Amino acid sequence: MDHDETGCQAPEGPILCINNCGFFGSAATMNMCSKCHREMILKQEQAKLAASSIDNLVNGSGGDICSSNGKEPVISAVTDVTIVSGELKAIPSQSPEVLCSSGSGEAKAKNGPNRCSTCRKRVGLTGFQCRCGDLFCTTHRYSDKHGCPFDYQRAARDAIAKANPVVKAEKLDKI
């Protein structure tokens, strides 16, 4: 078939990344390879964050970090913005948990390695997250081994009821 009949055109050839990193780019990533494109997007997000934090500092509308008004996303760390030779650099400083000492007591209690909630054994990446919300080792991963408070029967009943709604036909009038 001729390409005039189908309306399709074959690409002229592989396009190298515009950053000359040696990999191939595509039109979907603005002729960049995936790594360069990801780095560019990350730099743009950091620049937006730095610009918004500078704007908040200049306008004095920074407010309290602990309170969130629902319009802006909560930033996970407070950053100091410094301008070095024309580049904006965001440097993370103290965490908001340190600054918000009057906040809720449900701050992340586990700062160390992942451990089984029953035997405190280190589980690392191989831990099992239970429906009750705790992390367990291979021995205590089953609900009967760790005294799980999650009600599996009620959850199953609710799932079945939600998946199978009651279908009731209207009554027919008798002739």
From TrEMBL:
Q: Which GO MF terms are attached to this record?
A: DNA binding; zinc ion binding
The A20-type domain covers which part of the protein?
A: 11-45
The keyword Repressor is assigned to this record = no
- Keyword Zinc-finger assigned to the entry: answer is yes
Keywords assigned by UniProt?
Metal-binding, Stress response, Zinc, Zinc-finger
All copies of the AN1-type domain together span: 110-156
> Which InterPro entries does this one have?
AN1-like_Znf (IPR035896), AN1_A20_ZnFinger (IPR050652), Znf_A20 (IPR002653), Znf_AN1 (IPR000058)
State what protein this is by name: (wild Malaysian banana) hypothetical protein
Organism for this UniProt entry:
Musa acuminata subsp. malaccensis (Wild banana)
